[in-house]
Specification:
Elements: E1 18-24, E2 40-42, E3 47-51, E4 59-63, E5 66-68, H1 74-82, E6 95-100, H2 107-111, H3 120-138, E7 141-153, E8 156-159, E9 171-172, E10 178-179, E11 186-187, H4 191-211, H5 215-218, E12 220-231, E13 238-247, H6 252-256, H7 261-266, H8 272-286, H9 298-302, E14 312-319, H10 326-336, E15 339-343, E16 349-354, E17 357-362, H11 365-370
Parallel strand pairs: 1-5, 1-14, 6-13, 6-14
Antiparallel strand pairs: 2-3, 3-4, 4-15, 7-8, 7-11, 7-12, 9-10, 12-13, 16-17
Bound molecules: adenosine-5'-diphosphate (ADP) and magnesium ion.
């Protein structure tokens, strides 16, 4: 049999930075809440601002690769943040997409969505099948697509396609590929075939989580889509591209445990993986040559070959506009931001009298809305 050698295609640039998008979900005040209006708003397709709690006459402005306003559709999020990285996994490169943010801010909506508004996962899987189909017709390669689906809960790696499995080990082969021996890997031939495995596993996870006290907000759900292509002619070169689609644990855990390592340990590694992910992303994005602490948690160890290096990574930070989320939003933005700026311009509300109707408006509201992403 032909020897399998790792392919290094000289054209692939080192793109170790993690692209950061922020998505603000629509305001959803409950009837019993008093209507305080939002505490955060978009400014344009890359900038947003949040009221400064230290001084309410100021706002803190943040700059991101992309800002998705509350009117952004699932399709727009997919097209701008996810679709562009998918072709890479057909040529043996790795990619990852994460949804980060506090519980209730829209991570599952972004990744999974609903049947009316499908999210990143169904759209990405459909697109991968479409890309492979078009390549099959023209290329001299054979393609095979497969999936694994797992959860990291309390630093345990659990197979969602084989619900009774125990904590699985994470290993690295001689070519520095990360693998999990024993993890179910299923070849899928169509989107419907994928769905047949994915949907029941997702339902199982949700049911288990209601019994286990908010488990789903404390665990990371990780879907792996692998594309293996094999040259039809000798020497039958083979390339494997991996795409990780990750619905992360709620980032409020991170804030509650603060930044101190000791308190993080005391809280029983509530989310060591999330905490380490923030250090890894920080280290990659700051471009310093220091050690990237991949090995400090299960999540980052697992993603080591798909985050940083020549991998293509996107983090979608989900935030909510209500005041009840204020500190969680603030900490999520601080984690995600490359830069911030305090602006001495009050986020004032003015009361506009239109006949008998008192309409509460945020100054510049129109501007903020119309400046949302295309
Ligand atoms: P998380 O997974 O971060 O805890 P969810 O995705 O479950 O949050 O979102 C919380 C609620 O908000 C859900 O009812 C969800 O349908 C709704 N939601 C989140 N984002 C949006 C959005 N962009 N548009 C409409 N509804 C949204
Ligand atoms: Mg969720």
């Amino acid at each position: 049999m032909a020897q399998r050698v790792p392919v290094s295609d000289g054209s692939s640039k080192k793109t170790s930075r993690v692209r950061v998008a922020v998505r603000l979900r629509p305001y959803m005040a409950k009837a019993e809440d008093k209507d305080e209006g939002p505490c955060v708003r978009g400014l344009d397709s890359q900038n947003l601002e949040i009221i400064n709690w230290r001084n309410a006459t100021e706002t803190v402005k943040y700059h991101f690769d992309v800002f998705h306003g509350e009117k952004t559709t699932q399709q727009e999020v997919f097209l701008s943040s996810v679709k562009p990285i998918l072709p890479h996994i057909l040529v043996g490169q790795n990619a990852s997409v994460f949804a980060y943010g506090p519980t209730g801010a829209g991570k599952t909506h972004t990744m999974l969505g609903s049947s009316e508004q499908p999210g990143v996962i169904p759209r990405a899987v459909r697109e991968v099948f479409k890309l492979v189909q078009s390549k099959r017709e023209q290329d001299e390669w054979d393609f095979s697509i497969g999936m694994s689906y797992l959860e990291i809960y309390n630093e345990k790696v659990l197979d969602l396609l084989s619900p009774n499995s125990q904590d699985l080990p994470i290993r690295e082969d001689k070519d520095k590929n990360i693998l999990i021996p024993g993890l179910t890997y299923t070849t899928v031939t169509s989107f419907a075939d994928f769905d047949k495995h994915f949907v029941p596993a997702t339902l199982n996870r949700t049911t288990a989580s209601t019994k286990l006290n908010h488990r789903s907000s404390r665990s990371h759900a990780i879907l792996l889509i692998k594309v293996v292509r094999t040259q039809r002619a000798q020497p039958q070169r083979q390339q494997t591209g991996k795409l990780y689609l990750v619905d992360l644990a709620g980032s409020e855990d991170n804030r509650r445990t603060g930044n101190q390592g000791i308190r993080l340990k005391e809280s029983g590694a509530i989310n060591l993986s999330l905490f380490t992910l923030s250090k890894v992303v920080d280290s990659l994005n700051s471009g310093t040559s220091g050690r990237v602490p991949y090995r400090d948690s299960k999540l980052t160890r697992l993603l080591q070959d798909s985050l940083g290096g020549s991998a293509h990574s996107v983090m979608i930070t989900n935030i909510a506009p209500e005041y009840t989320y204020y500190f969680d939003t603030f900490s999520a933005l601080n984690f995600a931001a490359k830069s911030k700026l305090i602006v001495n311009k009050p986020f004032t509300r003015e009361t506009v009298s239109t006949g008998n109707v008192q309409a509460k408006r945020t100054r510049d509201d129109q501007e903020a809305c119309s400046a949302g992403p295309e």
